[in-house]
Each structure stands twice: as structure tokens, then as C-alpha cells.
Amino acid sequence: MARLDLQDLCFSVGALEILRHVDLSVEDGKCLALLGPSGCGKSTTLRCIAGFVRPTGGSISFDGQSVLGLPPHRRNVGLVFQDYALFPHMNVAENIAYGLRRRGVPAAERGARVAEALALVRLDDFGDRMPGQLSGGQQQRVALARALVIRPSLLLLDEPLGALDRRLRDQMQVELKRIQREAGITTIIVTHDQEEALSLSDRVAVMSEGRITETGRPGALYRRPGSREVMEFLGVSNLLAGRVEHAAAGQIRVRVGPSLALRAAGAAAAGSAVHLGIRPESFAMVAAPSSGEGGANTFLGQVTESVYKGSHVELYVQGPDGLRIIVQQRGEALAGAAPEIGQQVALTIDPEAIVVFE
Amino acid sequence: MTTRAAAAGAALRTSMPGILLVAPLVVFLLAFYVIPFAGMLRESFGAWTGDPEAVQAADWTLYQYQKLFDSARTLRALWRTIEISLIAVALTFLLSYPVALLLLRLGPGLRSALLTITFISLAASLIVRNYGWLVVLADQGPVNNLMVWLGLFERPQRLVYNKWATIVGLVHYCMPFMILPIYGALSRIPRSQWESARILGAGDWTTLRTVVLPLSMPGIFGGTTLCFAICASAFVTPLMLGSPATSMISQVAAEQLLIQLNFPFGSAVIFTLTALMFTLVFAYALIVRKVLRINV
């Protein structure tokens, strides 16, 4: 268990800057997700922490102690690879015991700790199996047990759920959370999947082009992202460009088209150009369309496409002034009657649910 | 273009039975290997004693094999062949594995340069290469001169016409056949295998010993088997670099077949060597499978 600090971490190959001054801290026992599109530098950051890549600048420390001078096998880090990288010529128990052998743990204790690790990942009777005989989910749990059994200062997970199918992903998500909590270990998850990042971590750091653009708690980051890029990256969103018409304490009115102005919670100078970010699920459908601009933040639109997604329906709505808006409605809210294509709907939005970007 | 070629390939795969693809090879092997070999096997059970006047006792007899196992010279040559081959294969392996590891680390340009250098020695004829070793290892050759100059010996030593000169020649010949399969196997080991050994606490040597070496076993098996077969059937190299006192089994067989014209005995020698080699390779494969749990 340890606290991790990255300070001013830089890495470049020739003129290509892969990491640009990355600062990051993870508190002891917390779980941080490093989220970003492929090529943003998140994997390089992970490889720097593990010791496979030597940064060109900056520092990495565990509990305030710099580890830059240590090779990977002396860092005491647990790493679960995307392809799990179980040793195919060793059975499950030997795979898990590998790190203990390297640390000179006596045979008797080794056996006990392997059994303990297998119990943690709920594979008690699998010690004699070969990795090739296991399913993807089981292989991942063995990889996790192998990484945890050495009692690492830090656990690194590289795209942990990427190779699993949908149902197994949901199952492993719950398992991973339980194991991380029970082991109480400082964890870093590298992923490009926003759902994975939001559901598994205590904090999310969004990366793009070698920089950390924003860090925050999953809920806060999802509801009130600090930039348009982060909002777009964390799931589907509507972005409306407009100009502030009227600014009062805590609330502004933004004109997004000749016939539509929306009130939003936030602060911006009157006359300035802003973007409004609205999550598709923030819209509510009003039963009786009120005439014109009548109700607060209510407007009329025409459904151009309707996609049924099981738990919810995704509607593509053509709003006033040619605005194209994506709306998500929960199945039960629609009471079985999903709007048909071409139908008129009235949408309303809570000013508090709108995020204002300067 | 590429997609059309791929589609054609897929169509070929489904429409052409596998047997048709190997048919030319099967015909070739039948005509030039299986049939002659069967004839040789039949011949080795013949009773010809080397005396044209002698009456044939029976159609089928183990006489030639009895003679073989009674002949101390033949048995010594057989044992020497196995010994020389095992030493040569072991030395070839020790020299080739680091080269294969180096190939893995080099960039594409340097890699093809090194591979070319490795294979260029095969372009020269075996006789030329062995002659080269005769010069290098000669009494007044560079190796002797260097050893005398370094003060290792007072005067030049006889380095050729013995077992070790034969082994040097065989190692030289075998190296490309060892390097390539091992390099192939190494390049198929994912980077994450190396890295997971490292992150779990293994240093470079331990990673090599516990993960890389076992996982490259298919290549090691291929390379060592190939080299063993090459060494055990060597004829020209021991003839040029060895002496009659260090002759290998192929020389004994050649003498019977080409000089004594005793075909049944020569055939028996050849068949014994073949059977012994099949047994050794089979036992080797079995050990690798059972002990290391790696399919080769």
C-alpha cells in the first residue's frame, strides 16, 4: 500500500512528445482511473510507473520515495496486462506462486498465500488447471490473484475489462470493485472506456495528447465536466453554441437560435459566446405541448429517429432553428408508448442540468 | 487487389482438399525415400557374407545385425557418432541462442543484415568451408600462431584430424539451422510475457530461465533435432577434419557400400543409425512434452 505521486512527468521519443508534464497523485488505498482515447499517453504513464519506460523528465514516487532508479522487478508493483500474460507452461498455482518464489518466500507460506489469493478471486479449486483451460474471465481473475499475492505497493490494471464480452464485463466490474476494496490497495486503471472508468474508480483523470485535462470524482466529472472535450468523452452529449443574453446571480439566459433561448445555472458575462452541454437523459418529455416558447426551457421538436435500447429509448429530435438534439428516455417513463418518427414532442430541461462552457 | 487475392486464397482453401497440396511431396518422398529405403531395409536382412562363392543360407536372416553388434569398430563408430553429434548440437545451441536473442532486439535493417551474414556461409560449398578450417587450424595457422604468441603453448599443437576439429566444422555448418527456428519461436513470445516475469520480481537471467527459455522450446526442439540429424549423418566433415581413428558411422557405411560393395552390411549400418535416431528424437520429444509440458 502506498501513495503514488507523479510530478512533471515527461516522455518523448525524438521530437515526439508523448507525455507533457503529467502531475498526478493517488491517495493510499484509493482507485484512480486514467481515461483517454488511444494514443493519449495513458499506457505510457502506466509503463513509466511499472518501470518499463524511463521518463525523460519528472519524478515518480511511492510514499514520497523516488522509484526512478529501480528496475521493474524491484518496484514491487502488481500489474494485470490487457492480455493477462499468464505463463502458459505453468498451472494456475505455479503462476500465482511465481512472484513469491522470486521473493524467496518459503514453500509452506507460499502454499498458504496462493490458496488465500485463489480464495480472494473465488477460484479455490483451480490451482491445478493450465491457463489454456480457463475462460477469459477466469484467466483475468488468475492474473489479478498473481498480481495481488505479492502484496504490491501499487496495483496497475491495463484495460482490465477490454477483452471480455458484455455480460462478463458487468460481472467482473462488481468483482474488481470488491477485490480492490477487500485488498485495500492503491490502484490505477488505464482505460479508454468511460463506463469502466466511472464505475470502477474513486477518481478519474482524463488524459488527452499527453496531458491530464481534468481530474475529479466520477459523479462530479460526469455531471459538471470542466471542458467540452471531457463532456464529449464521458458519454453522449448535446453541445449547443449560443450567446449570453442576460446574466443574473447564478443564472444566465443564452440565445441558441432566433426562436429559442435557454436558461442555465452558471455565470458568464452578458454578450459572451458560450457552449451549453446537455446530457441526453436530462431532457424530460412534457405531455401537453404548450404553445410557443411558453414554459420555462420548454421547446417543441420533431422525432427524426428512434432507437430502442432496452432500458431506454434514444430519440433524435429536430428542434427549433434546425437544432439536432439527442434525447434519452427511460422505458417506464414513456409508459410503453415511444414517440414515433415524425411525431411532435415537447422537451423541457432543468436549468441546473445544463453545463455552461465559456 | 489484395482483397481479391485474399478471396482467391480463401476459395482455394475451401475447394482444394489438403491432400492435393501435399501430393507432390508425397510422390517425391515415395519415389526417392520410402521405396529406396524399403529396398535397403530388405537388403539388410539378406545373408550375403561378402564372399561371392558362399551359398545363401536363407532369404531372411539377422546375420548382418549380428555381425554389426559383434564388430567393436562399428559399435565404436556408432557411439562416437552419437557423442560427436550431441557435443556439436550442445555447442551450436550455446552459440546460437544469444544470436537469436540479439536478432530479436535489433531493428529491421540490422536484423536482415545479421541474418544475411548467418546464411551467407551456406552459399560456400561444404568442402571449401572445411578446407578453410584446415587452414585456420593448421600447425602454422592463425589459431596456433595466436596461442603460441599468447604463451598458452610453447610450440604449435596439432588441432586438425581429430574429434574436436570435426565438431568445430559441424558447429559451423549447423548454426544457421539452429538460429532460425529459435529466432522464430522467440519472436512469437508476446512482450507481455517478458514484462510480467519482470514485474513479478524476476531479473534478466531469471526471466530468461523461467519464462523465455521454456516458451522458446518449440524452436529449440526444432533446431536441435535438425542439427542432430545433420551431425549424425555427417560424412564429408569428419572425412576432411577427422582421422580414420575418429570416423563416424556414415564413413563406415560408405566404406561398405562404395568400397567393399557389401550392400547388406552397409544397409544394416544405415538402418541401425536411422532407427537409433528416430528413437532418440522420439524420446526427446516425449521428455519435452512430459517434463516441460510444452507441445513440440
Q: Can you offer a commentary on this structure?
A:
The complex is a heterodimer of chains A (358) and B (296). Chain A contains 8 helices and 20 strands. Chain A is α+β, with helices and mostly antiparallel strands and 358 residues long. In chain A, the strands form 4 sheets. A 6-stranded mixed sheet of chain A has the order 6-7-8-3-9-10, with helices on both faces. Chain A has a 5-stranded antiparallel sheet with strand order 13-12-11-14-20. The model of chain A has no long low-confidence stretch (mean pLDDT 89). Chain B has 296 residues and is mainly alpha-helical. Chain B has helices spanning 2-15, 18-44, 63-70, 72-105, 108-123, 126-136, 142-149, 163-187, 191-199, 204-215, 217-232, 236-241, 249-260, 263-292. The mean pLDDT of chain B is 88. Classes of the chains: A alpha+beta (358), B mainly alpha (296). Chains A and B meet through β6 and α2 of A and α9 and α10 of B.
